[in-house]
Structures are given as structure tokens and as C-alpha cells.
Amino acid sequence: MSVKKFVVGNFDDEAVLFPAVKKVRRAGYKIHDVFTPFPIHGLDKAMGLKDTSLHVAGFIYGIAGTTTALSFITWALTIDWQVNFGGKPYFSLPAWIPITFELTVLFASVGMVLTFCWLCQLAPFIKKDHFNPRSTDDLFVMAVECTDKTNEQEALAFLNSVGAKDVSVQYRETGWWLGRYDQETVRYGKKVEAV
Amino acid sequence: MSLLRYESQVRPPIVDGTKDYHQVTEDICRPVEAKPSRLWWIGFLISVGLLIFGIVSVTMEVMYGTGQWNLNKTIGWGWDITNFVWWVGIGHAGTLISAILLLFRQGWRTGVNRAAEAMTIFAVMCAGQFPIWHMGRVWDAFFVLPYPNTRGPLWVNFNSPLLWDVFAISTYFTVSLLFWYSGLLPDLATLRDRAKLKWRKMFYGVAAFGWTGSTKHWQRHEALSLVLAGLSTPLVLSVHTIVSFDFATSVVPGWHTTIFPPYFVAGAVFSGFAMVQTLLLVTRKVLGLQDYITIEHIEVMNKVIVLTGSIVGIAYLTELFMAWYSHVDYEWFAFKENRVNLNSPYGWSYWLMMGCNVLSPQVFWSKKLRRNLLLTFFMSILVNIGMWFERFVIIVTSVYRDYLPSAWSTYYAPTIWEVGFYMGTFGLFFTCYFLFSKFFPVIAVAEIKHILKKNGESYKEKMNVEEEETVEEFAHKNLHDDHH
To answer: Which of A167, A194, B342, B473 is the most buried (most CB within 10 A)?
Structure first.
């Protein structure tokens, strides 16, 4: 496993973090990730992350639930074992709506949560690295990945100049626990990097 | 011109005091990291005692059958189903606060949603006990599930409201649990990263699922919360609707009513908010969280209580009117003789219900009384007594005297084991709540931080200063700017 080098800057105000993210990207640095104690709306856009399609997955799971409920009840009560309940038709759709609805919600919710955990690689006994334990308390931690071309002293100075309170160089072994979404970020301003 | 004062539209702050993010973490994590107080131990041990009483009562019922309860020929549903509906109803406030108020962008929900969601889960756990143990041969409880069996397979009756209940309650429990736990992940990570003791590091490390606070994770987390809220909103309405179908789809006078679904849902929210008040008034005091669960929260919830209490009142009067207007003798008898008539065997319960649920919450029209903590606490208990009696009235007074006078039952009063079972669910509920308040943050830490800059007291003051200028000043300043 190779070891990667990161330049890590801590910010204590999201109002400073936002322009900093833009400046760092414009300068051509590759932001590995920004760890924040709470969701900051718009930060994903500023970092150039794609929208999540988790809700589409939820819709598909929901439809699967609807289909499962309707087809199973239809099969069980009209084909497999017909029971005459007070002369009512075997195919009594209105009476099946409650269970169909509940299964739609159940499938969508369980499916979405499992997909969420899978995508974010979250599960019990998993340990991940987020560079500074205070990023779950009051700090916004930006980790910039150093490539062969990166001058780490320049990078440290640059993070300082955009408002980071303290900066450091950290080394991490690469692996899935560092996240797998670097291919999702669209780096922009590649031309600026040359300058 | 001074009349045209430009007034601030800013609402009162939801987080009191001057706080930064770290202070929020400290305040909410302190009770979790400190040793439990003597008060906590006393409450916890009383709850465990009640739970043991409940276990003994249920054991008696399982060993000797439902004959241990005083159910009789026409009153097949007594205390147990009353308690079931009551607990399910209490659960509704949590989902209302966490899901519906999220969709309506009500910032104040952040202070109370975590505890309310926990309450939902525990209340649904308690509710589930009643139909399960009421089955008598509880070892056959899995018969309610549609599994391939050797009896045909003979499937469950998907047309039956009782089966709808099985699906509704279990779905509700599962979805509430997922919603609650996914919201807890970031806060558990906060506790993990603060932990000094080894067992804490391990416990919260496992519980936090390796949450890091990565932006991509937050983005997905937000999407997940929003969709789960969207799903939970119709779900919570459906659950009490389906519970009301247990009664409404029957042909029993007093049950056979189309008004039941909205009436039950309003009643559920009403009793749920009362229970949230009971718990939070104690929690904020004992854990010292008055800055987060402020008097504003209490007041807003009291407004919900007076609103839903009045909806319930209208429902009571509507069903009474419809019973008379329907010209169905049995229907009118159930209302006039079994309920309204104070001299009938259960007349007292109807008027107790009316007094607790319809009359007493009306005190909350007064702002002063809405902000009175002692009165709020007293009212929250009163409302829950009233809502328990609502279910008792619906269930017992409808079935004890219906079509055939020869089948009218004798007076029904619970045995010690029925009471014990009910007390036992209180034990279960409070044991869970005490453990929750000890090991989990009772307020959503990340969500409070998220709204802090918008709704914190110190930040609001700054905004108010800017906005407190007259139109004249505003116009003058802007004109001035234009000239330059």
C-alpha cells in the first residue's frame, strides 16, 4: 500500500471556508475532502461534487415494494388459495392499499439506508480517518492531496493565506477508508495550475 | 412616517446564550460523559421495578391464559387494546416533529427532535406488546406473518385491518428506528472523537459506523434525511389511520364511523405532544439543557396541544351529532346511554375524557399560561390521562351494551395483572428513556450547530440592530448613497 501525503488546514468559520475552498481549487490543488461537524449547504457544489442520486434509488426501492406487495397479495388471494370473505371478490384491491403503502415505505426506507451505508462505506466496527478529531466538534478540516507536482511548502503557505488557522502535513496509507470519490470531483482551473 | 417602522421579521432565538460550536458540543455531551446523578439512579431503578412487575404480570397471563384478565363475553378488548392505541398515539409526536416539521422547515424542531424520536421508538415498542401478548398463545405469534406454511399454505387475510396493523406498526417501528439512528451517526462520532475512556472509544466507535463528516457523506445524509422525512410523513398519518380502521371497519355501534382516521391522528398528535412535554420538562431541568429546550419550544408545543385538543373536541361533537342525525337506534343508544348519560356505568369516563381533552387544554389560549412550566407539566399529565380514557371510552363503552340486551356484559374492571402489564410498559418505556438519556445525546448536536448562526441568541442580536431602523432613515441613507 502506498503512502499519500496531505496538506491539512483547519478552519474555524464556515464563512471563511467557503471562499477558501474555491480559491484552493482555482489554484489547482486537489481537495481530498472537507470534514465538517455539520452539513454545510452548498459546500458540495463549491467542491465540485456531483449531486447524489440516493433519492432515485429510494424511488426504485419504493416501486419494488409496491410491486412486491401487489403481486404477492394478488397471487396469494386470487390464485394460490382463494378464500371467500363474506362474498367479496377475491381480487379486492381497495383492501390491499394499506399493506401496499406500508411495504412501499418500508422497502424505500430500508433500501435507502442500506444504500447510504454502502455508498459512504459506513458499518459497525469500521474505522475511518478524518485527519483531525475536532472536525466532529468545531473545526472544518480541509485535506489537500499532494501530487508529484505539489510543492508542500507553497501549499501550506497557500492554505494559511486563505484563512486556515493551523496547517500541517500528514501522511496516510491509501485504501478504501480514505474514500473512493476522488474520481467524482471535477477539477477545474487546470490551466491555472501551470501558472 | 415613524409609524412605518421597518420591523424585524426575525423570530425569537431558539438557542439561548452566547455559544460557539464547541460550547454546543460541551453542553450536550456533558450529561453523557458525566457520572449519572442520584436522581437518574432513582428514576432508573423505579422504572426497572415497574418493568419487573410487568414481566411478572405477563408471565401470569402466558401461564394461565387471558383468563387472568377480566375480559368477558362482550368486552374482548379491554385495557390491553386501550393501552395499545394509547402508546401508538404517543409515538406519533416524535415522527411529527422529526419529519413533518422538517418538511415545513420549522427550525425549533432541532432542539426537541432527537428526544421525541427516541420517545416514538420506545412508545411503539410498548404498544407492540399489547396485541402480541393478547394473542394468548403467544408462541404462535408468528402466525400473523405471511410465511409459506404447512397448512396449505394458508395465507394471512390481507383484507383484515388487524393484519394491516401488523404491517403498519412494524413498518413504523423500522422506519422510525432507521430515521433516528441515521440522524444519530454524526453525534455518536462526536462522542467517539471526544472519548477519553477506552470503553467509550470502543462503544461509540462501533456505534458511529465510522462516520467522518466528509462533505460527500453529509450530502448523502441530507438527501437521506429529506427523503425519509418525506416517507415518514404519510407513514405516520397512515399508522393511526390503520389503527382506527380496527374499529371503523367493524359494524359495532360507536366504532362504525368514517370520522375515525382524522380523529385518531389528531388525538395521537395531541397525546404525543403531551408526552413530549412531560419528558422534556424533566430532561431539560435534570440535564441542564434550558438553553436548548427553551421556553419558546414549550410554548410552541403548547400551541400544538391547544390546536389538536380542539380538533379532537370537534371530532367528539361531530360523532355525537352524527349518531343522533343518523337515526340509527343502536348508534344513538351507544352515545346517549353508554357514554353521555352520567348515570350509566361508564358515563364518568366519557366526561373525564371531555374534561381532560377538550376543556382543560383551552387554558393555553393565554400566552402567560403557555409559558408556565408547572402548569404545562400538570396539563401534559392531564392530557395523557384524558387520551387514555378516550380509547377506553371508544373500546369499552361501545361493546359492553350493543344490539342484544341479553348479551350485555357485567361491569368490567381490570385485574391486578392487567394493571401490572400496563405499569410494566411504563417500566419498559422509562427504562429505555433513562438509558437513552445516559448514553446518547438527547439533543441533535450537529443540527443545533447547523441552525446556530441563524437562530442563536447572540447572532440574532446583531441582526436586530441592523434591522431596527425607520423607513425614513433607510430611505435617507439610500438616497444619500445614490447622490454619491
So the answer is: A167
A86 plus A133 within the same structural domain: no
Residues A129 and A188 in one domain: yes
Q: What is the pLDDT of residue B166?
A: 94
Helices and strands counted in chain A (H then E): 6, 4
Provide the mean pLDDT of chain B: 87
B107 in reach of chain A (CB within 8 A): no
What is the Cα Rg of chain A in Å? Answer: 25
What is the average per-residue pLDDT within A147-163?
83
Q: Which of A119, A144, A160 is the last residue of a domain?
A: A119
Number of folded domains that form chain A: 2
Chain centre distance of CA A184: 11
Per-residue model confidence (pLDDT) at position B460:
58
Supply the range of the domain harboring residue A169: 3-51+125-192
CA A145 to chain B, closest CA, distance in angstroms equals 15
Using left for φ > 0, alpha for ψ between -120 and 50, and beta otherwise, residue B82 falls in alpha
The reply to whether B163 touches chain A by the CB within 8 Å rule is yes
- The yes/no answer to whether this complex scores an ipTM above 0.95 is no
Question: What percentage of chain A reaches a pLDDT higher than 70?
Answer: 87
Window 120-159 of A, Cβ < 8 Å to B: 120-130, 133-138
From the number of C-beta atoms within 10 Å of its C-beta (0-12, 13-18, 19+), residue B440 rates as buried
